[in-house]
Amino acid sequence: MTCVARLAARAGLALGLALVLAACGTPRRPAPEEDTVARAAAAPVAEPAAGDVLARNERFLIYLPRHDETLAQVARRFLGDDDEAWQIAEFNGLSRPQAGQPLVVPLKPVNAVGVTAEQVQSVPILCYHRFSGSVAASVGGMAGKMVVASTSFAQQLDWLARNDYHVIRLSQLLGFLEGRKPLPKRSVVITIDDGYESVHRHALPALRKHGFPATVFVYTDFIGAGDALSWAQLQELDASGLIDVEAHSKSHRNLIERAAGETDAAYRQAIEAETRVPREQIERRLGHKVRAFAYPYGDANEAVLEALGRQPYTLGVTVNPGGNPFYAQPLMLRRTMIYGDLDLDGFKAKLQIARPIVAP
User: Fold this and answer.
1) pLDDT along the chain (360 residues), means of 10
2) Cα gap 311→277, rounded to integer Å
3) CA atoms 20, 26, 28, 32: torsion sign
4) CA distance linking residue 49 with residue 267, whole number of Å
């Protein structure tokens, strides 16, 4: 008997045992449908064919994949999305289907918040600014530190790909934070601030190589000026399917600092414009909803959070380092800066994908 037949036989035995145990509570005459099930369980088990669903309930199904069928194809068939293949892979502890071996397909989230007995899942959000084709341009002073050589960026993305990290969109974090949607164990988000032209020239090709998504936060007064991205380039980034363009304020002023002589009313009016104007401009120019905001210098206070709360923003990001577990505050997410003088070992150390649970 094959492993598939044994699996089906065990399922029949378990069903028969359940009926016996139920009968032990209060003696009664078996219902006609129970007789039918019991006879079916005792009957010889037919060998299932590839492509068959062997068993199913509301939460799981057991499926015998076809020859050469990929996990992405299985995910598309039962979960409606190739990108959900990771759920099948993690649940079964494999990277691809094995001949003759059934797969368990979780139909509902198994662990939407990423908590185990040992640790809590944490999602790092990486923050870049500028890129350069020269390593020499990536060092020297704070301004130099903000420039990452294109070779270093490519090396970092290559390492993520080789080590089974899942680069996800920032927007995918929302379901995780709300306890609705699990994320792969090695999830990481890539963000790029300000809107320098080097994003188009250096970052986009490296992201395309691996099909990695990223979020570019722009402050709209900068667009089209000097070495900034133009609206045409932003439209190209948006059309790539990899880049989400979101808001980084209007002028990049520090939103928690007041200008000299600025009254309470003027300050609140300015904060309202700094959060509303970029959202409206990006939505009008690029034709998509803007729901994420990056605070200039990573700073926010109660007035800023209230301004965001009056608008349809759902996520806000700081530059406080660390990862984001399911209980992170959606409008105060942590981000880890990636500087130009960081070597690959230093980059690896920035990827906080779990927090240990410390016993009391």
Assistant:
1) 42 34 42 52 65 94 93 96 94 91 95 95 98 65 82 98 97 96 97 98 97 98 96 98 98 96 96 98 97 98 97 98 97 97 96 86
2) 11
3) negative
4) 69
Share of the chain above pLDDT 90, in %: 79
Regarding whether 38 and 57 lie in a shared domain, the answer is: no
Residue 323 structural domain: 119-356
Secondary structure (H, E, C), 98-148:
CCCCCEEEECCCCCCCCECCCEEECEEEEEECEEECCCHHHCCHHHHHCEE
- Calculate Rg over the CA atoms of the chain: 26
Sequence-ordered list of residues with C-beta below 8 angstroms from that of 141, at least 6 positions apart, any chain? none
Within a domain: 114: no
CA pair distance 123, 232, nearest whole angstrom = 32
